Known about the structure:
Layout (H helix, E strand, L loop, with lengths): L9 H7 L2 H18 L2 H9 L2 H13 L6 H13 L2 H14 L3 E4 L7 E5 L2 E6 L10 H14 L3 E6 L5 H9 L2 E5 H9 L5
Parallel strand pairs: 3-4, 4-5
Antiparallel strand pairs: 1-2, 2-3
Helix pairs in contact: 1-4, 2-3, 2-4, 5-9, 7-8
Amino acid sequence: MKLKMSEKSLFAILLRSPWWWSFLIAVVMMLLARVFLPEAFRAVGMLSALPFAVLGIIAAWRQRDKPSPERVSLALTHLADMSWKQFLPIMEQAFVEQGFSVMPLNSSAAELQLEKSGKVTLVSCKRWKAATLGVEVLRDLKALQVSQDAAYAACVSLSLPTGVALKFAKANAVQLICQEELASLCLKVMKD
């Protein structure tokens, strides 16, 4: 049985939040314990802040390479201004830097075929500028994945998926590379 943390739990929220929030909570808890607890219980009360300090360390480690919101916004604006002929090489290079071998596909459902460790991933990225990411694109991509017996499928978009598309992606294991994740992926390749 695989245990999974609820996305609404305090620890899950703190892992997604800026790392310093966890440290701030730990410091406040230590100060409150120091001020309000009797001498006999003060050390135990202060130790109760330890999980938040550990959580701050984990969050800081996960966020160490995360770009600032300003850089993400600038990258997304730059990507939105690109033509398809400018965007495709950026995507190819971004995947190559992640260790994939990249082959272009001549398909309406996917433009790139990635291969790493013997596993194939099909990537749809031609509609990266669409106003909304609808379920039709994901259905076509999933059908191509099944027909080509690919291990994974991913869809790249500047916009967020519709609710139906998000449900379809989760139900069918289609990875969505949108907004902040797309900016982070491309920032390593784009020259400012």
